[in-house]
Amino acid sequence: MIASPSAEVSAQRNISAERLGAEARSAPEQADIWVRLAIAEGRRKRFTPAVAALSRARALRPADPAIHHVLGRMLFQISQFRRAEVAFTAAIAFQHDHAEAYFYLGRSLGSQRRFSDALHALKRAVFLAPFWPAPASFSGTCHFLLNRHDEAARQFLRAIALDPKAADVHLIYGRALLRAGNRAIAEAQLARAVDLKPTLAKSREFLLLTLCVADMKEDLRSG
Predict the structure, then answer these.
(1) Do the Cβ atoms of 150 and 126 come closer than 8 Å?
(2) Phi/psi at 44 (nearest 5 deg)?
């Protein structure tokens, strides 16, 4: 029986992680090996061992912003948002122009429902990486959740201008418009999202949103 490509990739990743684990145990003072082991574990979706490896690397090189940043990313993956916040803050302390760290700091704060704090970090990410749509998109989400619908729309439109083919941004923007009562534009955004990414049509969120659009149309007809 021939192994599938995905099975072969998985096996290769397992071998790589096991080899790096052996290297780390034989040379525990080498921070780079712990980082490589963490990345290998992360690729296998084994985020808890990845965090443990990065903690070893951080102890060896406490002023390395890249280690703090990757640690934050792994912590974010396992929903340890407060610890991720600390890691991203440390990365920024050692590298003040780290746009990705500011963005993921904003994501971590937003995941704790600290939307105003998140916006401060995201504003810095937008300043440092003005052509990256992700900070603008998540800023739109934070503004929307703070009921600042006009500013949310501006941020979503900024993200769409930077990446017109970002289906997920069209979907999020459509959701925000729908909740703000702007049915017509919301419907257009949802349609655009599905045009760009047809699999979205089968997602639970899209189905719920289309039901909301249908309900609003019915309300208009009955009114």
Answers:
(1) no
(2) -90, 5
Q: Measured in Å, how far apart are the chain's first and last C-alpha atoms?
A: 64
Model confidence over 135-182: pLDDT tens digits?
Answer: 999 999 999 889 898 899 899 999 999 999 999 889 888 888 887 778
Mean pLDDT within 111-139: 97
Residue where the block lists tokens 């600042």: 148
Confidence category of residue 13, pLDDT binned at 50, 70, 90: low
The two three-digit tokens of residue 12, written as one number: 């290769």
